[in-house]
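Re: the 663-residue chain
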Amino acid sequence: MKLSSGDFRFLQSFIQGVDLKDAWARYMPHRGSGDLRRIRNTVRLQLDVLSSTSKRHGDSSTATLFKRDPLRIKVSSIAAIGAATPALAARPSVILPTLDEFAQTLDDPDFYSEAELAELWEQRYGKIAVGQPGANGVQRYRDTPENRANKRRARLIERQLQALRRLELLVAAAPHPQDKLEAWFDFQTVQRLKTVGIERLSDLQDYINRHGFKWHRKVPRIGKNGAARLVQWFNHHAATLGGLEAFALAPAGTFDLQMLAPAPQTAIVPFERFIVPSVLSGFNGDNRKPVARCKIPALNDYQAIDLWLALYKPEVAQEGGAATGNAHTYTAYRKEAERFLLWAVLERNKPLSSLDAIDCAAYRRFLENPGPQWIAAKGMQRWSAHWRPFEGPLGPRSRAYAETVCKMLCRWLVGRNYLDSDPWDGAPKGGRKTPLRELRALTDEQLDLLITWLEGLPATKANRRLQLLFELALTTGLRKEELANARLGSLSNSQDGQGVRSWTLQFYGKGGKERQVPLLEKTVQRLFGHLAFNGVLEEGAGQGDDTVDRWTDFIESNPGLPLLARLDDPLKALPPARIYELVKEALATCAKSIEHEKPRSAKQLKKASTHWLRHTLGRVWADRGGDLRVLGEILGHSNPATTAIYSRADEKRRRQEFNKVFG
């Protein structure tokens, strides 16, 4: 444990008898909540550090001094001094009035000044007559036991405070970014921060700056108040740690993010803030087609890339129509295009329209190991000055995807007569093959463990919503963006000729394609049960013969109500990022509950995410003999080959034949 100036102020308050909880709240909020048990343990550790320091400097008396408690200095026994003071011994106790109370016992209290009253009070209570007056008539006095005890306490407190001041010069340290968390925070806080990879103060500072005001949502059991205490401590030590970003101190909605973002420049910055030098703009690129033949209104490489990205930019759906584009696709394509452009200009010092096959091969090698100046921590916001286009070297599959997108861009530019030829055509193929695809889905055992854990949760609003979220994801295969956009008006029910009703969720999915996904009856019941539990749907609306009719009326009256909403506002849908967080947090908590009995399953659950739930539906469907064409329609696959990854028919057939031959 390291001690800062704040620790010494807290110890001074402790020695002087200040209320411990008040002192803790003022000087020690970073060490956790202020319960008395934690406070006493911390005081003990702090005094142990001071005692050890005193001994190392050859001052054993100071080490002993801190073991003494001023409050344990008691009033001397009346019997012990009875022989010397018979008048006092005759009294069972000495009750000391205040100066005002003492004045009221006098015949004329207004006759005396305050100094005279104090002298009279001390003669009566602060001093005790000892023996008989001497030959000169002077009476000798001594302190009362209470007065002596108070003076001893005062002397001890002053000695301890002086020792604190001496030791503060030797021990007090300011926090340093490379200090480990254990030096400054309590054990529970340290363990919780370590679950997200935070080991040092610099890690915590980067994490807060990266995730902003609500950074604590990603750390188990830190909470809003605990996060506020840590931020307060960082601000107090800003001189040595550096200040936190402004958006870490208040909600993002209170800022104009464009104002926070650095000015456009020629540097490693996002595409929208990148200024391409005129000599590298591509206006006269070596691989340009004549401007007269170009089919797009682009004068340079930046404008050409911007026009290509516009093809995939998501647009809000007009009334009665489908939304165009897909946010996930647009974001992924923009990331690869801006990487390619930034590398060409800043690393290769060439316009993108002057790249050739040799350059493309060099870019492929660059993706394997971009330099540290190209890398930032995961999740850095695009408007942050710390943003970088990479989070680390790309793996084989990510490199293959990056190359595919760059080829798409170049081929489109060739097709629009902006480029004369595709620079990737002559690039040699990569030396390493992409590893075989691993199906990231839960096994039957892992799925059973997860469902059992979910069903065992207490009946709270948050848990009911979590159960609904997992049931929707596991039975419909919706992506997190699709779950966030699902509305009550997307539900419909129909009845066949035999009177059997069925429910369907109809919406526009990835690529603006219309999808119809069947819903299980139990899923619909869970949905309306969740709405009733939250008070959105009137109690009892899910009971009786007219249940479906009442549900249908409610849907027609509230078509814009999100299926997954915020707990504090049922009219506001959960954003995709929050859905992802909830799933990850739940999977991690479930994994922790089974890690001793089922360590392998726990490890897989920790790795899983929202997309694993989608793949789990595909695996279960195929394993139970479901039609892959129907599965493809439910999941929204445009290519049957994409759905074929779930089929294990060939694997089973090979295994059967193998067992037939070798028994």
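The chain has 28 helices and five strands.
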